[in-house]
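Quick look at the format.
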Amino acid sequence: MLTRLTSTPDMDVKVIEVPEEMEIENRIAGEEDAIEVGVRKLGGPSSYACPECHGVLLQLKDENPLRFRCHTGHAYSVRSLLAEVTEKMEEALWSAIRSFEEGAMLMRQMAGHAHEAGKDSSPEELLRRSQDTKRRAELIKQAVMSNGKTGASHEGEGYEPEREQH
């Protein structure tokens, strides 16, 4: 009986066709070239850049919840995109602070060198610029520290962003 049941086709089996969009997403998730498999068919360009590769994010059609995908295959939900963008803003601000502080240190060092070399007004100008640069770094740092994480909502913190890597 088992042999007969397993070898006879089941007439009640319904073949469900996979939508083209799902096939495209599956192929991209399988690390095929997103452009070649038709990522542009999934939606239109959004106003946002991919936080990872900086390409234009497509806003996927008729998606609820809203989702985005770039031409290289990175994929984001609204929450994961917000988390990634917030992280990148935070990194940019701390990078700016570091750059300003390093510039101020370099100017102080140059002022010291100019003073030792006996140059007239150069050390004072460099010290003034160093102090101004240090003040600018402090202003950025105060803005960052007063708002916690760049002023963005802390809702959803502690979760791992949902995204596919390509």
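Next, a different chain entirely:
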Amino acid sequence: MNEQNLNQQSEETVNEIANERRAAFKQTGVLLGAALLGGLAGKRQVSAQSQGGTSQGGAMQDNMQGNMMSEKTRMRMARINDLTPRNEMGIPRTAVIKQAANAGPREQNDVAILNYALALEYLEADFYNRAVQADNARPYLRGRVKDLARILQRDETTHVQAVSDAIRSLGGTPISKPAFVFPDNAFISPIGFLMLSSELEETGVSAYLGQGQNVRRQDTLNFAASIYGNETRHAALIRHYLGNSTPRNMEMPLPMNAVIEKVRPFFADPQTLPQPMMKP
């Protein structure tokens, strides 16, 4: 299928989804508005789950959101997603870094930035791997939070591989995975899991944004932006499950030294922390 047809299908699907959601809003009326705006109710729902309880309001919200999109539309979205050119890791091909013939200053600079990103991706992937393993051994996550943990595990594992491949494409060597430590409550309590997830994802978003001005190659920037976009979606989902559905009007970049201080408690060996770089 050529690009024109793909774009046409994508536009048609977006329009169909918008029409279906408008219809759903009319049908659900005040109930849906209350579910979307009830941040306090969302917080009580998470708290009830952490105490082993259930939330009727949360279940009603889940049911309404689950019915927002018809099966026909889901199939169309999946078909368009399958037609979108991607590499074997699911990263859009437009964001793949071209093989560098020579590792010059630009490549060396971008390798250093990507290895910094890789350290953060290792951190996130390790956390979600442990969370899923803990939940498999003794279930403590329920419903959509359980599903979210597995989605985050999949995405962050993909990021580790994708960033490692990007570093090799530039003639660099990916850093080894450090050892990490996490608070115990992140693996026994849903609220503990969500709170630490939010901290890690928000830090990752700020870290990627903070290095945008320092990247030297355009394809490296495109690649980093493709992961940055995924990390912002993670952060938004987690904020939603914590009861805060209000989107931010902008994200705030953080310099490397500030990010390092934020993640320092999770590195078992301080020597494996990313090292601050001179501004290129």
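The two ends are 42 Å apart (CA to CA).

See the schema section for token definitions.
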